[in-house]
Design goal:
The chain is α/β, with parallel strands linked by helices. Helix content is 28%, strand content 32%. The chain is built from nine helices and 18 strands. Strands 9-8-7-10-11-12 form a six-stranded mixed sheet, with helices on both faces. The protein has a five-stranded mixed sheet with strand order 1-15-14-4-5, with no helix packed on it. It has a four-stranded antiparallel sheet with strand order 2-3-13-6, with no helix packed on it. Mean pLDDT is 85; it is low at 1-18.
C-alpha cells in the first residue's frame, strides 16, 4: 500500500509540472497508403508562435487508446493550398494601403509550389486571383480591392471552402473588421449562415485562421470559426499589427510536423478511428483529437428482392436482407435500416 501511494504521488507530481498552454493543431491525416498513415500537425504557444524544437520525447500519439511507439517524425515540406479571404467592405476603405502591405508580406513568404487564391468580400464575393503559384499575379490582383459596400462574411468563407480540395494541406486565412451585415445594418447579407460556412470547411478538413481587426468584430464568432475548424484566432487592435500577423501566420503554416506510422489495427473494416496527440514541451502541454475512417473492402450479399405489392412498405423493407463480409471474413448482417446506417457510418 505504501508503494502504491508513492506511485500515485509521483504521477500527480509529474502531472503538476505541466500546465496547459500549447495548442495542438492537426492539419491533415493521409490514409491513402493504409495501414501506413501520415499525420501533419503544428504546436502553437500562447503568443501564437509555432513551437519548432520538438523531439520524439515531447510527443505521445494514441490510436483508439493504443499508444504508438514506432513512428517517423520530420518537418513537413509539403506544399500548401491557401485561400486569403479579405474584407473589402466600406469600413476598410481607409485601411487599404496597410492591408495590402500585410497581404504582400504573406504572399512573398509562400513557397514556389504553394497555391494561393485571393477572395474579396463586400456586397458580393469575388475571386481576385488563383488558385496560382504565380506571386506576380497574386500581387497584381490586390489592385482590385476598393473598400466599398456591405460585409458578406459567411458567403466568403463558404466560397473559400468550395475552392479548396478535400483532405489536403489547406487553409483559409480570413481578415474581417466587422460582422456579416447589409448596408442598412438591419441583418446579415450572406445567403449562407455562419453554421453553413464553418460546416463546409470542417467537412473538408480545412482549418480557418481568423484575424479580427478593431473593436467592431464579433470576437467570439471568429474564435468559434477557428476553434471548430482546428485553426487559430488572432486579434489586431489596429491596422498597424496586420503585417506582423500575416507574417506570423505564413510562417506558422510552413512549420508543420509530419508523423508517419503503421496503424496498430490493420483491419480494413471501414470503421471510425480516433487519434489523440499529446505534446509536452518545457513546462507546457497540449492535446487534441482527430478522426479518420479506415478503408473498407466488402463483399455484399442480398436476399429478398421481389415483393408482394399488397404488403406494406415496412413489411417489404423487412424482407430485404444484407450480408457484408470484409477482407478478414468478419460478417455483419441486417435489413434495409442496417445498410443505410452502415453507409452513413462510412461517411458517405
Amino acid at each position: 500500500m505504501y508503494y502504491l501511494k508513492n506511485i500515485i504521488c509521483f504521477v500527480l507530481l509529474v502531472s503538476s509540472l505541466f500546465s496547459e498552454g500549447l495548442r495542438v493543431e492537426i492539419s491533415s491525416i493521409d490514409i491513402k497508403d493504409f495501414p501506413d498513415l501520415e499525420m501533419q500537425f503544428r504546436i502553437v504557444d500562447r503568443t501564437g508562435k509555432v513551437v519548432s524544437k520538438l523531439e520524439r520525447k515531447n510527443i505521445r500519439l494514441y490510436e483508439n487508446g493504443t499508444k504508438i511507439e514506432n513512428y517517423f517524425m520530420q518537418i513537413s515540406k509539403d506544399p500548401s493550398e491557401i485561400v486569403l479571404v479579405v474584407d473589402d467592405s466600406g469600413s476598410m476603405h481607409n485601411y487599404l494601403k496597410p492591408l495590402i502591405k500585410g497581404i504582400r508580406k504573406f504572399i512573398r513568404l509562400l513557397k514556389p509550389n504553394d497555391l494561393c487564391t485571393i477572395v474579396a468580400f463586400s456586397d458580393t464575393v469575388r475571386v481576385l486571383s488563383g488558385p496560382t503559384s504565380d506571386k506576380k499575379k497574386l500581387l497584381k490582383s490586390l489592385r482590385n480591392l476598393n473598400g466599398y459596400g456591405a460585409t458578406s462574411l459567411y458567403d466568403a468563407i463558404y466560397k473559400a471552402a468550395e475552392i479548396l480540395p478535400e483532405f489536403e494541406k489547406t487553409a483559409i486565412v480570413l481578415l474581417s473588421d466587422g460582422v456579416d451585415q447589409n448596408k442598412r445594418n438591419t441583418g446579415r447579407i450572406s445567403n449562407y449562415s455562419a453554421i453553413d460556412a464553418v460546416t463546409k470547411a470542417v467537412h473538408k478538413n480545412i482549418p480557418i485562421y481568423t484575424i479580427g481587426l478593431g473593436r467592431l468584430i464579433n470576437r467570439q464568432e471568429l474564435k468559434d470559426f477557428s476553434r471548430l475548424s482546428n485553426g487559430s484566432f488572432y486579434y489586431a487592435p489596429s491596422i498597424n499589427q496586420l503585417t506582423d500577423l500575416y507574417q506570423l501566420i505564413a510562417r506558422n503554416l510552413k512549420s508543420d510536423v509530419k508523423i508517419k506510422y503503421a496503424s496498430p489495427n490493420l483491419h480494413k473494416d471501414g470503421k471510425y478511428r480516433n487519434l489523440e496527440l499529446e505534446v509536452f514541451f518545457e513546462t507546457l502541454s497540449g492535446r487534441n483529437n482527430a478522426n479518420y475512417f479506415s478503408p473498407g473492402v466488402f463483399k455484399l450479399f442480398t436476399t429478398g428482392f421481389g415483393y408482394n405489392s399488397k404488403e406494406s412498405q415496412n413489411s417489404r423493407d423487412s424482407m430485404i436482407k444484407f450480408r457484408l463480409i470484409d477482407e478478414g471474413n468478419m460478417e455483419q448482417s441486417g435489413a434495409k435500416d442496417f445498410m443505410q446506417t452502415f453507409i452513413q457510418h462510412l461517411g458517405k
